[in-house]
TrEMBL record:
Residues 170-209 are annotated as: Disordered. The lineage of its organism: Bacteria, Bacillati, Actinomycetota, Actinomycetes, Geodermatophilales. Pfam families: DPRP. SUPFAM superfamilies: Cryptochrome/photolyase FAD-binding domain. This is Cryptochrome/photolyase family protein. It comes from the Bacteria.
Length: 519
């Protein structure tokens, strides 16, 4: 992945991108619901303000399990802190803060809107952000001069290498452990042929009295018509406390990390977890410092001789891709979310918005949407190559898809989804983040999953009643965006193939008729 400097908004004069101080000991620390770990405090005895704002759930229609997880984590943290916490349940953040007279400090929030809000509040001192391996100022120093004429591009791989060297992660002296920084080529295997997960089932948390209270409140809010949700209710599947998060991390390192690498891009019907860590949600809640996650992963490698391709692949996700996306959210500026280079204008279809699989015959879509409805989570390949690929091919508005991903995934936040969806998934930035669209036909899904075997659609066919919507949709997509992509050297071969299709006109008409209807 690369980012061109031409798209960079350096934020000069933007208060949200100021060089904030590192700490403010002696103040009460206001922690947002994604800042719940001890690393957001300056000392273990610091007093804390936690705010539960009900209006958040009225503004957006979240997945039921996401709303549950957020409230459960916030209330669990308040209970853990006991008398050190002032826990305010209010309609809005402003209403809650109006009742607080003492000075507050807060680590810089994770969205533009939240930073603007805290910067506008009197008596609130904003500190440098936490919860990532590489700090914002460090990234800006690294990025300075890149992407300009004669400079280097902002490649994720370059950033990841620099971060590994700077933090001394998986390094043997001045060289990367194993002789190279990236073992991705070893991690692209299809799913196991026997259809079984390559790892044992993950550890899952047990709900408690706080979860019961959260569920009762959500039920009441829905009955009152105050809020509405999408997706199925519990049980809670993701950690809501630091203790639970560390338990899941240990379980992953001890029983699942070794199998993670080879099949990390694979999909299996009925096996949603595979060997994935399931740490994105608690990490994005701030329940564990990613620095600690990376250190423990390297320690497990050193002590237990785990496969390096699995360990490196996991480390790259945490301190490479996750950090990279975080920094690009700020680096690319406030208006990046509005990009729509491919002029995609279709609305999110009702069946997708409602996670309704009743009329879906495409096995991959039905399986992935069903998994999302049941758990509020699928791993990165169903997100990118099924859900994102579908939206890209069908021309769904990227801003609407960004909002949908944000609301529907338990680990979805604005900073997560804006670069991932606008740039990586929907190519709406015109090639700023990814040099070509992540569009593919049914052959990729057939190779990397077991969905196609029993599907009524044939991944090899692009025309007819049994034509795969992804295979046909791929050519329909290329035909629609060909004028925009004509100058893209990485698209030269696919576009040449498009021009050779003798049945192109019929395929385009077929896919135009299909539109975003269920298939």
């Amino acid at each position: 992945m690369e980012v061109t400097g031409a798209a960079r908004d350096d934020g000069l004069g933007d208060p949200a991108l100021a060089d904030f101080p590192a700490d403010a000991p002696g103040t009460r620390r206001w922690c947002f619901a994604d800042q719940l770990g001890p690393h957001f405090l300056d000392d273990p005895h610091q007093e804390v303000l936690l705010v539960e704002a009900r209006s958040v759930f009225r503004r957006r229609r979240f997945h039921r399990q996401k709303a549950h997880l957020l409230l459960s984590a916030l209330r669990h943290r308040a209970a853990e802190l006991g008398g050190r916490a002032r826990f305010v349940q209010a309609d809005t953040y402003a209403q809650a803060l109006d009742g607080v007279e003492e000075p507050l400090s807060v680590c810089a929030p994770t969205t533009w809107a939240a930073r603007d809000f805290v910067l506008g509040r009197p008596g609130v001192q904003v500190l440098a952000s936490r919860g990532f391996v590489t700090g914002e100022q460090t990234f800006r120093r690294w990025a300075t001069g890149r992407g300009t004429d004669g400079g280097k591009r902002l490649l994720m791989d370059d950033f990841y290498r620099a971060a590994r060297q700077h933090h001394g992660v998986l390094m043997d002296g001045g060289d990367p452990t194993g002789g190279k920084f990236n073992f991705d080529h070893d991690n692209r295997e299809p799913p196991p042929r026997d259809g079984r997960s390559p790892a044992p089932e993950p550890w899952l948390p047990t709900e408690d009295g706080i979860d019961e209270e959260v569920r009762a409140d959500l039920d009441r809010w829905e009955r009152d018509g105050d809020v509405s949700f999408v997706g199925d209710d519990g049980p809670r599947l993701f950690p809501a406390t630091r203790r639970e998060t560390l338990h899941r991390l240990r379980d992953f390192l001890d029983h699942r990390l070794a199998a993670f690498g080879p099949h990390e891009d694979a999909m299996l019907a009925g096996q949603p977890w595979l060997a994935h860590s399931l740490l994105s949600a608690p990490m994005n809640l701030g329940l564990v410092d990613p620095v600690e996650v990376v250190q423990r992963a390297e320690q497990a490698y050193r002590e237990h001789d785990l496969p390096l391709n699995s360990v490196e692949g996991f480390v790259r996700q945490v301190m490479g891709w996750r950090d990279y996306i975080w920094h690009l959210y700020w680096h690319l500026g406030r208006d990046y979310r509005d990009r729509n280079a491919l002029d995609a204008r279709a609305a999110v279809p009702t069946w997708l918005a409602e996670l309704d699989t009743a009329d879906l015959d495409a096995a991959c879509l039905s399986g992935v949407v069903g998994d999302l409805r049941a758990r509020g989570w699928v791993h990165h390949i169903p997100r990118l190559m099924v859900l994102g690929n579908y939206a890209l091919q069908r021309g769904i508005d990227p801003a609407a898809m960004t909002d949908w991903f944000h609301r529907t995934f338990v680990d979805g936040y604005d900073w997560v989804m804006v670069p991932n969806v606008v740039g990586m998934s929907q190519h709406a930035d015109g090639g700023v983040l990814a040099t070509k669209p992540y569009a593919s036909g049914g052959a990729y899904i057939d190779r990397m999953s077991d969905y196609c075997g029993g599907c009524r659609y044939d991944p090899k066919k692009r025309l007819g009643e049994d034509a795969c919507p992804f295979t046909a949709g791929y050519w329909g997509f290329l035909d629609r965006v060909e004028p925009v992509l004509r100058g893209n050297r990485r698209m030269a071969q696919p576009l040449a193939g498009l021009r050779r299709l003798k049945d192109l006109e019929a395929v385009v008409e077929q896919e135009r008729d299909r539109g975003t209807d269920p298939f």
